[in-house]
Amino acid sequence: MGCSSCASKSDGSPKGCKNNGSCGTDSCNKLTVFDWLSDVELPVGTERFDAVEVRFKNGRKAFFRNIDKLTLSIGDIVATETSPGHDIGIVTLTGELVKVQMRKKKEDPYKPDLAKVYRKASQRDIDIWQKAREREEPIKVRAREIAIRLNLRMKISDVEFQGDASKAIFYYTAEDRVDFRQLIKEFAYEFKTRVEMKQIGFRQEAARLGGIGSCGRELCCSTWLTDFRTVKTAAARYQQLSLNPLKLAGQCGKLKCCLNYELDSYLDALKEFPRQDKKLVTQKGEAVCQKIDIFKSKLWYAYESEYNNWIELDTEAVQKIIKAEKESKPVASLEEFVEDTPIVSTSFENSVGQDSLTRFDKPKNKRKKRPSNQKSGNSKSSKYTKNQQPKKKQQKRQNKPKPKNEKQ
Question: By residue range, what is the domain housing residue 111?
């Protein structure tokens, strides 16, 4: 958040611009594409591509034709064509890269019926748009109350007003088909606007609302992820993850999309490993695979008669044992291929010159023990009494001359 309206309040709590990612400075946008062709000049005689990418609330984007050849740049607020009326959005991409994005979304860059950009938004358009945005949250709360009263098994996750406040889109999720004919009538009567119901999936709901994942970062689906691939539990098995649904599921309730990120690397590494259901045949007996370590290329086997005794082998040794079995020359035992790793004893020294960890601890004040012959309140407060003083002190007192004015 780079704009000044997203600063903190006097008490330290976040202020927020209440735009939910639609900031005019384009600093807190979602799914923003980096224009790496912005500094590249077009060849002589080539016109710039006349379509732009416009983003609306959250991650909803669409492409529009700039037929009036307006000077548009990233972050400009524009009024776009829609039915009915017009909508207000923010330009997120211009130039030749828009053509690449349209082909990625399987849209024809040169189709004639593409919606167009009307104009740059005026101050009046922005005021109407902001007032409509402020109504979305209370309307969402009221809409949920009406849906609960009608006993509809659905969840209204988000409400989005059109830029001219003439229509409201209600996004909802449901597991079964929902008959919301009566719901639309009550919405139109309650909110005095055109109503459009749009069903979305659970992953799309998490992408629209956003949030923080278990990794401590924003959700991938709401920041940069655009395509939602199917995630299966086999992806967790290949990566040797615990099949705990509480840890593997994201905020959408489905398996996390990040399980597919490193899956290809694991599959490539597993090509060098033998099948885990393959038994190793030796003269001593058959051994079953108990565990594998993909990073260290290690496997642990145990004889069928000694399941508690695991033997560590590397992939090369296992391949040799399998090859010997195919040649009808089984090896004597698995212990022949165990590598003796010497135990290295490490001694820790204070070579860096660090201080002790207890250097800031205050030592306890130990009370000095009194001698056993000393008692509180006794006139004998010194260690020696008058009759028990050292001999040197007694001799000094005897040899000390008396003052003149003292009577002898």
Answer: 31-118
